[in-house]
TrEMBL record:
It catalyses: 6-(2-amino-2-carboxyethyl)-7,8-dioxo-1,2,3,4,7,8-hexahydroquinoline-2,4-dicarboxylate + 3 O2 = pyrroloquinoline quinone + 2 H2O2 + 2 H2O + H(+). Gene3D superfamilies: Heme oxygenase-like (1.20.910.10). Its EC number is 1.3.3.11. Residues 12-222 form the Thiaminase-2/PQQC domain. Pathway: Cofactor biosynthesis; pyrroloquinoline quinone biosynthesis. Belongs to the PqqC family. This is Pyrroloquinoline-quinone synthase. It comes from the Bacteria.
Length: 251
């Protein structure tokens, strides 16, 4: 077995995965940030991304249920609170529902998850199972897409504000808050992975876990593009433009 890379080289390897495979390079994001999405395409993105947002605390709870080290559980706990909220913090899920309000969706419909694309469900559910079943190292490494999130959040805020009438500070509060929350999570997660991936085999497993997570994110945008952009074949049961999910329809 070959020797493990140094911490510095292994970190470069992880960052290169993001440079090549992160979903900021997907055509749908180019459309979204550039103002090329129709209102209904934006709504479809909000509906489907909610499924991912709502399952992040489930993923983190599954991870914590396996952790025997109290220090690691304490460090990880804030991730659930960031999304579910606390008495002092509205939480990411509620902020996402504010975005749903802003784009003209009925928040109860979005929260019901009834209109989510099948491929979105498969991808997100696979991520939750991955974190539940794989090693702790692989589970933490999969979260390291957060390394690349601040850039996409900054681009999204700028692009949405520039191109869409619904965009304001309230509607985009989820992304602004993640600019503050994500660096804390990244610093801890990256240091933990670099410290625990101390063999070539473990480094390979961690790198593959990060690749898996980029595939999860990419596949969600593939599903959106296929259903709502080209060729526009929406699977049975998924949200249809004009359905009850639109607040304007009177739901």
């Amino acid at each position: 077995m070959s020797d493990a890379q140094s911490r510095e080289l292994f970190e470069e390897r992880l960052r290169e995965i993001g440079a090549q495979r992160y979903h900021d390079k997907h055509l749908f994001h180019d459309m979204l940030h550039g103002g090329a999405c129709t209102p209904d395409q934006v709504r479809a993105w909000v509906i489907n991304r909610y499924y991912y947002q709502s399952h992040i605390p489930l993923k983190d709870a599954a991870f914590m249920s396996r952790v025997e080290d109290p220090a690691l559980r304490r460090a990880w706990r804030s991730r659930i609170e960031d999304h579910d909220g606390t008495q002092e913090n509205e939480g990411g899920i509620q902020r996402w529902l504010r975005l749903a309000d802003a784009v003209g969706l009925d928040r109860d419909y979005v929260a019901s998850e009834r209109g989510v694309l099948p491929a979105t469900k498969f991808a997100v559910d696979a991520y939750v199972r991955f974190v539940r079943d794989k090693s702790l190292l692989e589970a933490v490494a999969a979260s390291l897409t957060e390394l690349f999130a601040p850039k996409i959040h900054s681009e999204r805020i700028a692009g949405l504000l520039r191109n869409y009438d619904f965009a304001d500070d309230s509607a985009l509060s989820y992304f602004r808050n993640r600019l503050k929350e994500a660096p804390k999570d990244v610093a801890f997660g990256l240091d933990w992975v670099l410290g625990h991936a101390d063999t070539a085999e473990k480094q390979d497993a961690a790198a593959q876990a990060l690749i898996f997570k980029t595939d999860v994110l990419w596949s969600q945008l593939d599903a959106l593009h296929s259903a709502y952009v080209s060729p526009g074949r929406i699977p049975p049961g998924a949200w249809q433009p004009g359905d009850a999910g639109s607040a304007a329809s009177g739901s």
